[in-house]
Amino acid sequence: MSKLGELRHKQWATWLPSAVVLLAVFLFPLFREPLDAQMSDAILALAYVVMALGLNIVVGFAGLLDLGYVAFYAFGALAAGWLASDHFTGAGGDSGIHFGVSDFAASLPGIHLNFLLIVIGAIIVCAIAGAIIGLPTLRLRGDYIAIVTLAFGEIIGRFAQNGDEIKIGDYAFSNGRESISPIDQLNFPIVGEFDSATNLRLYFWAVFALVLVVLFVNLRLRDSRLGRAWIALREDEVAAASMGVPLVKTKLMAYAVGAAFGGISGAFLGVFLNSINANVFQFGFSIFILAMVILGGLGSIWGVVIGAVLLSYVNSNLIPSLDRGFVSDFFTDLGLEFTFSQVSFGIFGFILVLMMVLRPQGILPERRRQMELTEGIGVGDETIAETRA
Predict the structure, then answer these.
(1) pTM
(2) CA 147 to chain centre
(3) Residue (of 286, 230, 226) closest to 66 by Cα position
(4) Section 325-335 average pLDDT
């Protein structure tokens, strides 16, 4: 077999399993009832996949520890609340501002835009916010970056939770802990509105389409000049600078792109859940998404997808089942009011500790990182270079 034939064979061997899995996921709703509980869990899992892939760019590709990623989820969700509800009633006059929505949504006061425009708005808002958070970290490394990002996440969370006291002109930043509700459901001209309370299939396919787009962008970025610059930055910042990598631009792009993906997921969840609950914009959620990245494998795109799905299952199914099972009955018999949901983030931390001890490279690690952890530093680069040659 010629070298060209061998290369094509390797490409097919790499992509065929992924294509089969993606096809199976696409067909999943056809085998479930429209309101099946597993459909709702699957939609949340796919939304978390988008978020985890965004954080993987910052932490996995560029090596910048971000502990405030919940801020971009908050901005994306708030964008949905601002652009698809009556929150800004009076804006645009009594008739409101409407574009690309169903006749029903066009009759409502406030701002009501098409879902695609909401996503674009979330991308712009979060990319700018990501660049802003990147500015104070340009001269920082390691734990200091983590402290700055943690503070940023906490600030945005507090803003959202107390947004009813913060004014943007005549309007509140948010409704505080009361949430912005209702947010428009997915709706399109002529077709009408799709209610998540009656049919979840459209929402599944919508978030699945977002996952495909984000996956494609991740794969292209990883193999681009910018992706290689991120990896160089992660491996050795000083060496990267000496080789001509523009550190400022590279770091800011990592934060901006990663934040944009978080905003996409936040906007979708705002529409899907039909409201924004500011109480979830807390540090624990950032750790939840970070755990997905570490569990799957830092820098590994497909590994992060697996990690996000697994931890989403643990959060949505396994932990609640423990609260309903014999383990919960055992604590009740002892007179203890205890539920595993109260210590869910402790469970995620325990899972991370196990992974760091038993398999530090993650479930499906990036090739370079796996080789370095198993064969030594530098071996991964040499082997990959030989393979590409």
Answers:
(1) 0.87
(2) 20
(3) 286
(4) 68
